Amino acid sequence: MDRCFALCLMIGAMLFTVTSGADTTCPMGTYKIGDDCTGICGYCLDSNMTVTGCNQDGGECKPVENSKGVVEVFCKVGWKGAACNQPLCFQECGSGTCIGVNVCFCGRDINIVGPQCEDIRVRGVVGSIAAFATVTASIALCGLGSKLYKRRKEGASL
Q: What is the pTM assigned to this prediction?
């Protein structure tokens, strides 16, 4: 019984030592925020242009020396910044915000839509004017047609 108890204490102490170490490294693609590996790395590339991990302390990409001897950060296409976590939109987002590669968030206003976050109210006004002109022309032509029909039925010549 004493041996079993001592063995359980030893195993518990070893597990505690392994899991509670302050110098644990984070899994690939994450970095430390406080004591936990809850930060998500950006889209960092190494010198072979393959996705790599980031700095474990701040999440920034590891600088790489390029072919000319200049040290710089390489990001996957469509991303920028020291941590490669700022998206690029190659089209203009207008009044919106770039939230992903070529993805614009236009906000909560339902009148701002489309890839460039355009205001549809302007197109709506133009459409209303076109519809009004069409209805007005239709009514005018129907009225003229009605008068012509009435004259023809009465026997009058055009």
A: 0.53
